[in-house]
């Protein structure tokens, strides 16, 4: 089964059970945010410690590696 969501307004279909971090990678650009110095950041630790995967999910700040994808979810990266 697939889950349909949007990343930065673009539709993405991912396997059910995936995290948002996986959806970012599947979408072809695993970047989750830009640092204050303009460097691309992406999920690093995969367990919520490093905070590199912060994204907005349905308007709330979430960790992509800890958030399971749900149907219709709206994900916005901070780029």
Report on the architecture of this protein.
By secondary structure, the chain is mostly beta strands. It has a single domain, classed as Ubiquitin-like (UB roll), CATH 3.10.20.440. The protein is 9% helix and 34% strand. It is built from one helix and seven strands, in the order ββαβββββ. It has one helix at 20-26; strands at 2-7, 10-15, 33-34, 40-41, 54-57, 60-63, 74-76. It has a five-stranded mixed beta sheet, covered by helices on one side. A two-stranded antiparallel ribbon has the order 3-4. Strand 1 (2-7) and strand 2 form a beta hairpin. The radius of gyration is 11 Å and the shape is globular. The termini are far apart. The model has no long low-confidence stretch (mean pLDDT 94).
Show the helix and strand layout:
Blueprint lengths: L1 E6 L2 E6 L4 H7 L6 E2 L5 E2 L12 E4 L2 E4 L10 E3 L3
| CATH fold descriptor | Ubiquitin-like (UB roll)
Shape, per Cα inertia axes: globular
Largest sheet report: 5 strands, mixed
Q: What strand line-up does the widest sheet have?
A: 2-1-7-5-6
Features:
about 80 residues, mainly beta, five-stranded mixed beta sheet, two-stranded antiparallel ribbon, 1 helix, 7 strands, about 10% helix, globular
What does this entry show, briefly?
The protein is mainly β.
